[in-house]
Structures are given as structure tokens and as C-alpha cells.
Amino acid sequence: MRLFIGNKNYSSWSMRPWVLLKQAGIAFEEVKILFDSFKPDSHFKQSIKAVSALGKVPVLVDGDLTIYESLAIVEYLAESFPDKHLWPADKVARAKARMACAEMHVGFTALRSACPMNIEASLPHIGAIVMRDNGAAVANVKRLETLWGELLRQYAHTHSDGMLFGAFCAADAYFAPVVMRLKTYGIAMSPMVTAYMSRLCAMPGVATWITDALAEHEFRDFEEPYRLSQ
Question: Which of 76, 106, 204, 205 is packed most tightly, with the most Cβ within 10 A?
Fold first, then answer.
């Protein structure tokens, strides 16, 4: 089983299935295709289109099957490895976890646009401007605070992991990139949510991704709206 990803510093979509696989202890081969450009003739686009016609990462290849959509990858992994408990065991919690992932999948667009994932950078001054001037991004942050707070109050006490549904699951992997954003841009959250963010960053799968991202040293100007150099 191979997982095709982009730069770990920038590729929020790649982070989700990679962290889930790593944290669950599922063996896979990482195939990293570094971003050089997103133009049709770029090395990145040509390389990933040889795997998937969509031309985007992540892509999971398992035998003859190619899965190029991140939620579909999560569901495939959950069905393939039921012993890994990638979704909560409880039916109601599992439905809520799926809803949370779907909300992240299609939502929070203002925050994602204003604050692109950039693990290596420290941009609290940009975060302060975003939170002052971008009402839609502020609303996204408030929604994260509400959603995470509700889940933590309901489930975090049920398991020593202290994750959104107690034990680490796909929902935590799905929100890991937005946690990276909140940290990079210095966006303040409540003490309870901040503590969750710290616990998530300390999970081995997430911590390994962060370490790898910091070791890349691959500055890409088209991914860097706020800096001229690393």
C-alpha cells in the first residue's frame, strides 16, 4: 500500500491520511512528490497525474485500486483495518465523528484561505490581522471552538488520549492541519481547546509529521503569501 503526498510543510490534505495511517500503526509506503508548481507541465502535476487523473494529493494505491479522495481513503482504511478502530466504536459517536470530518472537508474555507498551512513558519502578526479584519475567518475559529469544546466536554474524559472522541480517531487526524494553522498564526483558543491542540501535536503520528515538515527546508513562494524567504 502506497500513499502519495506533497510537501509535509504545506500539504494539509496529505497530512490527514498520513497521520491516520502512522498513528494507527498501519504499514504503508510514503511516496512524496515535492511541489515545484501547480502548472499543468510542472514536475508535480506530471508525476501525480501518472497515478491519478485528478492531479492532486493525497492518493492511496492498494494493489489495483487507486483512491484519490481523502474521505474515501479514510473509509477504505477503516473497512480494511477494523481492528484499528479508526472511527469511534459507539454508533452515535461514530456518526458525530463522520459529521465533523465532513464539516472540515468542505468548510472553514475563509480560515484555510487566509491562513495556509505552513508548519515551519511563525506568523502571529498575520494571524492578528486576519482576526481583526476577516469576519468569515473569525466565524470559522468560533465554530472550531464550539465544535471542539462540545466534543471534548462530552468524550475526552472517556479515554486517556484526551482526543475529541476520547481515543484518537479519524476526526483528530482530519483536524490536525487546522491545528497547525492555529499554531502558526498564533490564533488564541480557550484553555481547554489549547490543551487538546497540545495533546494532538504530541501524538506520535502528528509529532512525526511535524518533525519531517521542519526538516524539509523547501521554500515554495507560491505557497507563501506572507514571506519572501524562509
Answer: 205
Name the grid cell of 166.
476520547
Cα dist from 47 to 36, 66, 172, whole Å: 11, 15, 30
Q: What is the mean pLDDT of residues 161-175?
A: 96
CA angle, residues 35, 124, 206, in degrees to nearest 5: 55
Instruction: State if pTM tops 0.70.
Output: yes
- CB-count exposure of residue 15 (10 Å: 0-12, 13-18, 19+): buried
Residue with cell 484519490: 68
Q: Which domains does the chain have, with CATH numbers?
A: 2-84 (3.40.30.10), 91-213 (1.20.1050.10)
Q: Please, are residues 85 and 94 in contact by the beta-carbon 8 Å criterion? A: no
Contact in structure between 3 and 46 (CB atoms under 8 Å): no
Count CB neighbours of 192 within 10 A.
14
What 3-state class would DSSP assign to 180?
helix
CB 2 within 8 A of CB 31: yes
Nearest partner of 33 among 226, 210, 218, 208, judged by Cα: 218
Among the listed residues 116, 114, 113, 88, the one whose alpha carbon sits nearest the alpha carbon of residue 101: 88
